[in-house]
Amino acid sequence: MPKPVKLGPQPGNPRELILNSEVCPNEWQLLPQQEEGENIEANALPSGKIILPLRQWQAHREALAERSAEVGVWLDSDEGAELIGREAANLPLIAINFPAFADGRGFTAGRMLRERFGFKGELRAVGGFMRDQLTYLQRCGFNAYAFEGDQSLTSLKESLHDFGDSYQSGVDQPLPMFRRRF
Amino acid sequence: MYRYDDRDRAIINDRVAQFRGQTERYLAGELSEEQFLPLRLQNGLYIQRLAPMLRIAVPYGLLNSDQLRRLARVSRDYDKGYAHFTTRQNLQYNWPQLEDVPAILAELAEVEMHAVQTSGNCIRNTTSDPYAGIALDEIADPRPYCELIRQWSTFHPEFAFLPRKFKIAVSGSEQDRAAIRVHDIGVQIIKRGEAIGFQVLVGGGQGRTPVIAETIRDFLPEEDLLSYLEAIVRVYNQLGRRDNKYKARIKILVKALGPEEFGRRVEEEWQQIKDGVEKLTPEALQWAKSFFTAPDYKTFDDAASTAALQQQADSDKAFARWLERNTYPHRVPGYRAIKLSTKPTGVPPGDVTDRQLEAIADLADTFSFGEARATHDQNVVLADVEQGQLYELWQQARKHGFATPNIGTLTDMICCPGGDYCSLANAKSIPVAEAIQRRFDDVDYLYDLGDLNLNISGCMNACGHHHVGHIGILGVDKKGEEFYQIQLGGSASNEASLAKVLGPSFSRAEVPDVISKILDLYVEQRRAEEPFIDTYNRIGLQPFKERVYAKAS
Fold first, then answer.
1. Domain coverage including residue B250
2. What confidence tier does A5 reach under pLDDT thresholds 50, 70, 90?
3. Using CA atoms, how far apart are residues B510 and B66, in angstroms rounded to an integer?
4. What are the pLDDT digits (tens) for A45-89?
5. Euclidean distance between CA atoms B308 and B155, whole angstroms
6. Which of A166, A180, A182 best tests the B interface by mutation, with the highest count of B CBs <10 A?
7. Mean model confidence pLDDT for chain A
8. Is B10's CB within 8 Å of A165's CB?
């Protein structure tokens, strides 16, 4: 599909998030995508832990080599995990945007990063996903959930435990049930 | 049939609890209409014109008598005492209260049933051949593979929010009775030597843009079924269109890329995962097959039992007719499968009352090892009936209104609920079905016409399979009025074809006359024993068009 000319909804920067099943302060600043042709210079990027849109990360990867521990990347829903590929293994954080909860491409991207590209860092869901997707997100390898809006994270995180078992393989339970029944 | 163990039970109970919480949050105003929508849909709950509609999953159509009795009880306690068999071998309730749905799901979970993924943009109930396990032309029983697919697809974390709904059908016989060529994925069991494998087709479908599926793999080894399906759905999840719901089905993607390129991408993805954990182990295959072994058949002398049956048929013409139309050959000597018709004149096709559901349970217990099967043509099969008991079964079926001897004939129509219930419909379909049944209620004429599928959909979403009816009727909206377009020549069999539009549409009152003209021409033109579809294929659309639209002279 051709990339839309207009930028889609950009994920925000909530103050707190769910990380490894706990409510934690959000220590990372996610930067929005730039219009085509606009580019922030590497030395003009904010200090501290930042999450860059894919294209900016691609442009500045080398210039930011010394900051690698505090530079993460975010993928929009039309950007597949293969665009980061094996580089994922060296990243501290990857965020995946869900422009709408019904856009399920991010589930595949999450699984690919974990299962195919060796990503071990924080995998963060950002954007318009919803509470009732938490078990699916977790099974696809996400461990951080940056909800937007004013919902209580303490009550939201209960939904991480909606299901106690699963039929097919996933990041949390690599063995499908048919390999565990006997 | 498949029976749950503690793990299956735990998962379904978790789901019931989850949906109870979601419904409470919705009723308390914590979930918006928009947020609740995909949650209720993935539990089979639609909001229809007059009331919610709840679609219960019947995995590949199999039901036992306990389940039938529970479905009856639920229809009595929570609905208006009837239910509707769908074209995906499922069952729908048309009048439940939204706040009762969690309790209904809990009642169903007790008999190993649920409404998981019966709607929404996810992998739906896998469908199959209602004669699985007993058909003479069976290559291998499709049900173990259907069950493995059911488990793999249930709450698949990656594929719960696909671009659009996704339907898989499996056929295990030479004659395709599962309409696999009009599914997102069609799986055809084949054998190479003694090795079981699958021919895999993708991109078929009905709806607004009907397409016949294309083969992307000639032979997939048995153990690779799930990993290959995972590769297909993964490619679709990443590349399927999400900007326009009418272009979001996999058929559009397969057309856009071309089947070769689509197949190449699937193959590329599959190479990465084919030797992974989803590869079926010999134990898993053995285990899945262990649920679908032959019941305890008796040994009969086929010739003697057939002769006795013939004698009964000779002395009772009504029974003979039922025997001819409503029973089906069985691979075990002395047995037959029978079809209970849900389509007597005046009843919406597929509708059954609570008492009838209980009667099916009783008939199944008495005559067919306690099991029944919902079919995609909205009838019910009892698969394992002793020939010597057919007469007794027929009498009981008749008492309960199931013995209309019209299976496979014009009045055995596939029909969606249409404008009487469905908020998507452009036009009603049930009254059209009834008008046709009333017009053509002469049994001798129906028999003379022979095999004839007439399918009716109330809108272009094609739930009534009008594209693949020998005669298809499609409800359309013309400036706020209900009209009906007639199509001819569709088929969902091995030689699948899509029906062609005859011409301008008709008012509801005109439809029976139009059908009558079409049938008259067929009767005039047919060669000896030639079924309608063959005559159509031989003479084409034009003569029918001329007859139907001829100016009165």
1. 134-290
2. low
3. 44
4. 999 999 999 999 999 999 999 999 999 999 999 999 999 999 999
5. 51
6. A166
7. 94
8. yes
Considering only alpha carbons, which residue of chain B is nearest residue A134? B157
pLDDT tens-place string over residues B65-120: 999 999 999 999 999 999 999 998 999 999 999 999 999 999 999 999 999 999 99
Q: Please give the share of chain A, as a percent, with pLDDT higher than 90.
A: 86
- Give residue B385's Cα distance to chain centre: 22
With 80 as the cut, is the pLDDT of residue A37 above it?
no
One domain for residues B202 and B77: no
pLDDT at B553: 56
Q: Are residues B368 and B460 in the same domain?
A: no
Helix (H) / strand (E) containing B537: helix B532-539
Whether B314 and B364 share a structural domain: yes
Which residue numbers of B have CB closer than 8 Å to A's CBs? Answer: 5, 7, 10-11, 14-15, 17-18, 22, 35, 38-39, 121, 148, 151-152, 154-163, 226, 234, 237-239, 241-243, 272, 276-278, 280-281, 283-284, 287-288
d(CA B411, CA A126): 54
Give me the residue label for tokens 């209260």: B97
Cα–Cα dist B397/B394, whole Å: 5
The verdict on A148 touching B (C-beta cutoff 8 Å) is no
Rounded CA gap, B159 and B170, in Å?
Answer: 20
Chain A residue nearest residue B23, CA to CA: A132
Closest to B384 measured CA to CA, from B343, B333, B350: B333
Longest pairwise C-alpha distance within chain A: 58
- B287 and A182 within 8 Å at the Cβ level: the answer is yes
Q: Which residues lie below 8 Å from residue A50, measured CB to CB, with a gap of 6+?
A: A28, A29, A30, A31, A70, A71, A72
- A156 CA: distance to closest CA in chain B (Å): 12
pLDDT beyond 80 at A1: no
CB-CB under 8 Å, A132 with B22: yes
Max intra-chain CA distance, chain B: 73
Strand partners, B168: B185
Q: B123 in a domain, yes or no?
A: no
Residue B414: predicted pLDDT: 94
> A107 to chain B: nearest residue by CA?
B158
Interface contact A164, partner B, CB < 8 A: yes
pLDDT at residue A35 is higher than 90: no
C-alpha A148/C-alpha A129 separation (Å) is 9
Q: Which residue of A has its CA nearest to B22?
A: A132
- Report the distance separating Cα B234 and Cα B241, nearest Å: 13
Which residues of chain A have a CB within 8 Å of the CB of B283?
182
The single-letter DSSP state of residue B264 is H
Domains of chain A (ranges; CATH) run 16-31+44-179 (3.40.50)
User: What domain count does chain B have?
Assistant: 4
Indicate if B172 and B279 belong to the same structural domain. yes
What angle (nearest 5°) sits at the alpha carbon of residue A117, between those of residues A113 and A122?
Answer: 45
Q: Are residues B164 and B261 in the same domain?
A: yes
Long-range contacts of A60-67 (CB under 8 A, 24+ apart): A61/A87
Three-class SS string for B89-110? Answer: CCEEECCCCHHHHHHHHHHHHC
ipTM: 0.96
User: With an 8 Å Cβ cutoff, is A179 touching chain B?
Assistant: yes
Give the span between the Cα atoms of B422 and B58, in whole angstroms.
Answer: 21
**Segments in chain B below pLDDT 50:** none
**pLDDT computed for residue B234 by the predictor:** 98
